Amino acid sequence: MNVYSLATKGFVSIPYPPELRTKVRGAMDSWKAFCALPALEKLKLSGGDRKKDFGYMFRQDIGPRADRKELFHATLPNLSALYEQAELVKQSEATAFIGATDTLLEAVSPFISDFAKSVERTYGLNGFPNEVSTSRRLWTLRYLHYFANNASKGDVLAHAHADRGGFTLHMDEDSPGGEYLSFNGRWRPFPLTEKETIIFPSLVLQHRSKGWLKALCHRVVATAETAGKERFSMVAFVDFTDKVRWNDAKHRSQEKAPGFNYAMSHENFSKFFTTQ
């Protein structure tokens, strides 16, 4: 894989292996079918509150950064529990969704491993592939569904932020609107295509690379095509360590100015982290 643009643009576009693309599409279709279930049935797959970040979640926030959406988090350690919960749902769509998620978590592993090897070769992050492969229990598939709303063109649906973990695969979306903040301070649309995924560093990878790979700030806005309509997407958060974490108790990453980290020295950036 060619990953040079991680440092120059903040992300890399990589063609999907055809078999993996098919599984991504299948998981997205199953997510849409799951979202169509009655609310009480979907809640049977809930893992609890925000802190647990497990299973099905419905969020209707208030305030300046409010958004209204339903989402789903799945990791390898909680798949067994999700299968059991899905059996409690009358409709078969729940079990089919968990099955498609299970299949995708397995299928994406070699792709992620190849990416980690390319990062090691290109940027000299010795041991990075092993860190990634031995942390599969930390990887999270996130499914998102933004409800139809009164948004107009240019309105922000997901506010500007950098992800807190290792790196992110933007796996699929059913409509445009994703944007990234370029290193010269301009918002630009992600160049997504049907046959490619985009991977970008998150905050922990910026720390791991000592500032070489910047955590990419991104957001979602309503376009002329999507304003007022519902929106489905899915990403994979790939964490490779639970020993170094962004210290969110002291430094709310969502409250930082977009791109705050781009010109920051590694010494100053490291002050936002805690080790365990």
TL;DR?
It contains nine helices and 13 strands. With 276 residues, the chain is α+β, with helices and mostly antiparallel strands.
List keywords for this structure.
Jelly Rolls; 7-stranded antiparallel β-sheet; 4-stranded antiparallel β-sheet; 276 residues; single chain; alpha+beta; 29% helix
Describe what this molecule looks like in 3D.
By secondary structure, this protein is an alpha+beta fold. Helix content is 29%, strand content 25%. The chain contains 9 helices and 13 strands. A 7-stranded antiparallel beta sheet has the order 1-9-6-11-4-3-2. It has a 4-stranded antiparallel beta sheet with strand order 5-10-7-8, with no helix packed on it. Strands 12-13 form a two-stranded antiparallel sheet. α2 packs antiparallel against α5 (93-107) and α4 (79-86) runs antiparallel to α5 (93-107). The mean pLDDT is 91.
